[in-house]
Amino acid sequence: MLRCSCGGRIGTQTTKPKGSKTTYHYYACNRRRQLRKICERAQRSLSATEVEETVWRFVSVLLKDPEKVRAGMNRLIEQELSERSGDPQREAEAWTKKIAECDRLRNAYQDRQAGGLMTLDELGSKLKELERTRELAHVELGRLLKRRERVDELEHDRDAVVESYAGVLPEALEALSGEERRRLYGMLRLEVAPAPDGLEVTGALGTSGPRSTAT
């Protein structure tokens, strides 16, 4: 869920100074590590403990307001639905009809060729054109299906977060394991990036729009 200020993913690193019994965990830009040089914006490494505590403090405070969580998740759903104008259901029906029409025309062209009303070259040209249209229709249907799946998943996660986490006693939140917190962050679609005044959080828990700052 971490991104460097340069846009690259941030990954977990560990170090154990010579002679020390302590292993230190930190986050560093993957581009910096892979290219073996400082990334474009010279993002410093971040203490894993400090980042995790800051993000959790920010999230746990906002979880005390279930309606704010619900509003944030609803905003993500609205953004997903508004990515492309039009009625997804109507679009899906139109592309489904287009596929059926391609199948009908394919059979009709083959019958015409068999009856001597069309040459093999003409048939081949028509079939290639139909196949291109058919492939496009399947691509668009797949895109619409994935869009619907993303909306369904967001709605499911919204209900799960509100019912299972939002508004619960602070003691219960603090008792969540690291894995449970990671799962919660995933449902909230959180992404975190270093910012001059703290950490910039993107996802469902924005206090004014999609971004908030945790310090």
Radius of gyration: 26 Å
Strand proportion? 5-15%
Estimate the global geometry from the Cα principal axes: elongated
Q: Return the structural class.
A: alpha+beta
Spans of at least 5 consecutive residues with low confidence: 207-211
Order of helices and strands: EEHEHHHHHHEEE
Helix content: 55-70%
Biggest sheet overview: 3 strands, antiparallel
> Which strand order spans the largest sheet, edge to edge or round the barrel?
1-2-3
Number of DSSP strand runs = 6
- Our count of helices gives 7
Number of domains: 2
First and last CA, distance: 17 Å
If you average the pLDDT, what whole number results? 83
Please explain how this structure is put together.
The protein is of the alpha+beta class and 215 residues long. It has two domains: 1-64 and 167-215, no CATH class; 84-166. It is built from seven helices and six strands, in the order ββαβααααααβββ. Strand 5 and strand 6 (211-214) form a beta hairpin. The longest helix is centred in the middle third of the chain and has 45 residues, at 120-164.
